[in-house]
Amino acid sequence: MVQNITGSFQLMKSLNRSLVLNIIRKEEAISRTDIAKKANLTPPTVSTIVSELLETGIIREFKIGESKGGRKPILLSINYNNYFVIGVDVGTEEVRAGLTNLNAEILATKKQKLATGMTKNEFVTILEHLIRSLLENEKVDKTKVIGIGIGMHGIVDHEKGISIYAPHFGFENIPLKDKIENVFDIPVTVENDARSLALAELWFGNGRDAQNLVCINVGDGIGAGIILNGQLFHGKHNIAGEFGHMIVDLNGRQCTCGSYGCLHTVASGIRIKERVTQEITIGRRTIIPDLVDGKKEEITGATVHEAAKRGDAFAVEVLDEAGRFLGIGITNLINFMNPDKIIVGGGVSKAGDFIMAPLKETVKKRAMTTDAKSTEITVSELAAQGTMIGAVTLVLKQLYDRS
Ligand SMILES: [Zn+2]
Question: Where does the record locate the signal sequence feature (predicted)?
Answer without folding.
Answer: none
